Amino acid sequence: MPPKEKAAKAPPNEKAIAARAAAEAWKPNPFTHISFIRGFDTVATKNPLAPNPSMLFDAVATCDYDKVKQILLSDGDINALNPSGSSLTHVAVRTRDVKILELIMAFHPKIDVKESSEIGACTPLHLAADAGDVAIVSLLLKNGASPRIQNAVLSTPLHIAASKGNHEVVKALLDAVNVPKPKGYAEDPVVPLGEMLDGQGKSAYYWAKEFGHDGIAELLPPIPYDPLAQMDIKKADVKVWNPNPKKPKKDKGKKKGDKKDGKGKKKK
Asked: Which CATH superfamily does the domain covering 26-110 fall into?
C-alpha cells in the first residue's frame, strides 16, 4: 500500500498569535496589584521583581506603617508617582500622619516634586501650608523642601498660609529662609520670599490683609497690590483661547510694484 500523504499545515494566523500573546501578558502574576482606594489608579512598575508601586501608595494612604516599611525595604520605589503626578510624600502629607512621613523622609525622596498642572501643580509643602500643620511643614523644611516653589497659579506656600491665617506656618516659612548661611553657600535670590508675587501680582501681605489676618500681615513686608506689577510676570507660556482666530491673507502671485486690473491681468 502506498504511504499516506501528510496533510499540509495551514499558514500561521499572525493576528491570532498576537492576540494570544497580548492575553498572556495580561495574566495576573505575583507582582500584579490593583488599587481599590478611590483616587489611586494602578501604577506600572519598571522592575518586575520589585513590589508594585500601587501597593506602596495604598499602604501610605491607609497609614499602614509596617507595610510601608516592608515595601520600601524590599526595593520599593521611593520616588514613584501615581497618574496624577502625586508622590508618596504628597499622599503622606494629605493623611497628616507624621510617623509615616518621617519613615518616607528616611529614604531620601525627591521632596519638591510638583503634581500635574490639572490639579494645581502643588508640592508637598504647598499642601502642608494649606492644611496649617506646622509639624509637617517643619519636617519638610528640615529635609530640604523649598518654600520658594510656585504652583500652577504662581502661589508659594507662604501665599497659601497667609490667606488661610496659619500664623505658625507663616513663621516657620519665614524662619526657614532667614537661617544664617555657612561660608561658601550660594547667595539668596534677588526677590525675598515675602516679596514674591503670585499670578495675580499679589503678595502674601495682600492676602493676609484681604482675609483679615492682621497678625500675619505684621510679619510680612507691606507690599500693596499694584495692578501694573502683573506686566512684569512672565506669561509667555500662557496661551489665550481664541475661538475665531484671524489669519492674514497672503497673495502668492503678487509682487511689490505689480498692479492688476479687474480681470486679474497685470497692467503694462
From this structure: Ankyrin repeat-containing domain (1.25.40.20)
